[in-house]
Specification:
six-stranded mixed beta sheet, alpha/beta, globular, single chain, 29% helix
Length: 164
């Protein structure tokens, strides 16, 4: 079975107004939350077959923290420019292009698109994926190409605030 994890980047730092949105780093809380949530998945024995990430600094840093916690080589993360400032159809298109031999896919990116995408795929009504929130979905049809409306069931929804 194919399992998809949509993961919103950890909390970013807004203190330096001279930085572009793309270049915002994680704040103190974000640098703690990303490894925490990665370790929660690692404790469950979850291992990604592939990690796709927005190249925005906050998403990239989050993806690398998860990769480290999950013993996934950070140089194997695929940074997809299409995941930054995109729409839901772009996210779905990238997922549809994943190789059939990948069973567990992690995708790191941004809201509101990630919440919209999770709701479309599962038919659920998640109000908001908070920063560093992790949505786990199991595809109903064992094919990335089939991802779309109501094509997966929500397996879990976790976020850092549960552990504070």
């Amino acid at each position: 079975m194919k399992t998809l994890y949509l993961i919103r980047h950890a909390k970013s730092d807004w203190s330096d107004e001279s930085l572009s949105d793309f270049d915002r780093p994680l704040n103190k809380r974000g640098t703690k939350d990303a490894p925490l949530m990665g370790s929660k998945l690692s404790d469950k024995g979850i291992r990604p077959g592939l990690i796709l990430s927005s190249p925005a600094l906050r998403a990239k840093t989050t993806a690398k923290a998860f990769a480290e916690a999950l013993s996934y080589p950070s140089d194997s993360i695929h940074f997809e420019h299409e995941l930054y400032a995109c729409d839901v159809e772009t996210i779905l298109s990238l997922i549809r292009g994943v190789s059939a031999d990948i069973d567990t896919l992690f995708v790191f990116g941004h809201n509101p698109e990630f919440t919209e995408c999770a709701n479309l795929i599962t038919g659920e009504n998640i109000d908001n994926i908070p920063t560093c929130g992790v949505v786990e979905m199991r595809l109903k049809n064992d094919s990335w190409e089939s991802i779309g409306k109501n094509s997966a069931e929500l397996r879990s929804f976790d976020f850092p605030k549960r552990y504070r």
